Amino acid sequence: MRTPDVSVVVAVYNTMPYLTRCLASLVDQTIGLDRLQVVAVDDGSTDRSGAELDRFAARHPGVFTVLHQPNSGGPAGPFNRGLDVATGRYVFFVGADDHLGRDALRRLVEAADEWRSDVVLGKVVGVNSRHIYQDIFARTEPDLDLFDSPLPRSLANTKLFRRELLERHRIRYPESMPIGSDLPFTLEACYRARRISVLADYEYYHAVRRFSGTNITYLSRHADRLRTVEATTAFVADLIAPGKQRDAVLARRFDHEIAKLLEDDLLRLDRETQQLVHAGVGRLVAAYLTDDIALQLNAETRIRFALTRDGTLDDLLAVIRQDARTGVPATVVDGDRRYAAYPGFRAPGRSVPDSCFDVTTAPDWAVKLDVTALAWETDARGERILAITAGTPVPDLTALGVDRISVSAEEIPGETEELAAGPDGTTLRIRFRAADLLAGAGPTGRRRAVSAQLGAFDPGLAQGANRATGAGGSTALRAPRLRATAPLLRRRGTRLYVITPVLDESGRLMISVVPVTPNRIMAQIRRTLRRPH
Questions:
Q1: Of 44, 173, 477, 505, which is the most exposed, with the fewest CB atoms less than 10 Å away?
Q2: In-domain check, residue 196
């Protein structure tokens, strides 16, 4: 009986029509069907997914193993069942929404064999404006350090794993976690691996965001997400002893998964859920947020975390409401300390400690900007320009040691000039050329976070713009009172694209570039018809 080089495990639940492209990308791999095993687990699908799996299995006998089971509530069970029957030297996990580059598996296996790697990451790109952190894919690395690299930000399971490593340590997905189970699985595999490698020379994995937005991650609720981060944080703490290595992993949990629980949409939840989130995050902050981790967070996130530990729910909601609806508060200078004057700071009858609002060691506070105007303009050369006006209540940036602010849409630098500085603050004007925004979008589009940085534009920092780390003096631009701006329609080659400034779930400015396709048009029509009139 043959031993395939790689077993691809696919967990499937109601993913038509995306599933067809996923499966087609597997049978079309240049590695060849004789070196490939596909284990597909139908987790109780109620659409045509199960039948589609059977159709591919019948068409490619000996390649597919299809397992049908009742719905388990998440991908962990199907992935474990698929892993149990996998026979390949390596295992690769694929989301049934997603698809692979045609040469992906051959390149991954050859790299693992050449470098004797236990885990290999191939470059992942987003489809339909799905955001994927790209800093881990800055260059090809034969030997990557888990704790001294961006890898803890990229612990999805979309990697090649040596199956012998998984079996030796009996690494499996925690089935008690309906969402997020790939993080502990991937983390333990990377922690146990003798060598981890990264390939940045090819688009290996295309991660798709469905037009309907029905991926399980996008549908998850605050209570579910809180349980997930509590479970993953506890897993990290059990796996890695206290110290810099644990902090390197937990810093990414705090600045992403845990911080997302305290974004502006918390204001829209019922009081009971708000209390649940406030208390749960407060426990995590008290137990695991070290000083070293806190210094890596932006000022906005640090303040919100501090108020889950040292303030009441109403203290936290007042700060979020200020950011979401009013804008950046004033800065109070007291001796050699600086404080963000949010509601609750030294308020009569409130006992919130000043330390919650201390931004003295947060260089990003000086570049915490509110967007006040957005407009499409035409420059002297006839080129279309996205003009952004933004301001900070800091009246004298030079007093904070700031001699220059740069604004970028991730890897694209904006042209920034200071318009005015006075007692009420500083106003900036930022311009982005539509041609620059369009050039790097690719055939499936792109969504970029707009952020401000201290000093000159740094492409390396811009790669992680969504992180908005305080340590690097970078923070995302907010637009709390901004009205919608008309999109710009532009042609690139044979394709039409729409360029639109949009806000994410926490009021941060993004620039979305998406192709005009029949599927997108139909999805927009369906969304419009579902809206109440």
A1: 505
A2: yes
Q: Could you write out the DSSP letters of every residue in 222-243?
A: HHHHHHHHHHHHHHHHHHS-TT
532 Ramachandran zone, left/alpha/beta (phi>0; psi -120 to 50): beta
Q: What is the rounded CA–CA span in Å between residue 400 and residue 19? A: 54
Contact 389, 368 (CB under 8 A): no
45 by DSSP, 3-state: which? coil
Give domain status of residue 1, yes or no. Answer: no
Q: What is the pLDDT of residue 519?
A: 62
In a domain, 352, yes or no: yes
Verify that 267 and 233 share a domain, yes or no.
yes
Structure tokens at 237: 């703490």
456, with CB counted inside 10 A (0-12, 13-18, 19+), is exposed
User: Shortest CA distance to 97 belongs to which of 154, 13, 170?
Assistant: 13
Q: Do both 235 and 289 map to the same domain?
A: yes
CB 298 within 8 A of CB 475: yes
Of residues 1 and 516, which shows the higher confidence score?
516
What gap in Å lies between CA 182 and CA 175, rounded to an integer? 10
Alpha helices in 393-517 (DSSP H): 434-439, 459-462
Number of domains in the chain: 3
The residues, ordered by sequence, that sit 6+ positions from 268 with a Cβ below 8 Å of its Cβ are: none
Residues paired with residue 331 on neighbouring β-strands, in sequence order: 340
Q: Given its phi and psi angles, is residue 44 left (phi above 0), alpha (psi -120 to 50 degrees) or beta?
A: left
What's 137's DSSP letter? G
The answer to whether the beta carbons of residues 327 and 481 sit under 8 Å apart is yes
Q: Which of 306, 333, 361 is the last residue of a domain?
A: 361
Pairing type for strands 425-433 and 384-392 reads: antiparallel
Query: pTM for the whole thing?
Result: 0.85
Span 152-182, pLDDT tens digits: 999 999 999 999 999 999 999 999 999 999 9
Residues 402/454, Cβ–Cβ less than 8 Å? yes
Tokens of 441: 């979008």
* Residues in CB range of 493: below 8 A, 6 or more apart: none
Q: Degrees (nearest 5) of the Cα angle 220, 303, 340?
A: 140
If one counts every other C-beta atom within 10 angstroms of the C-beta of residue 424, the result is: 11
Q: Which of 15-29, 399-413, 495-509 has the highest mean pLDDT?
A: 15-29
Q: Which domain, by its residues, includes 71? A: 6-214
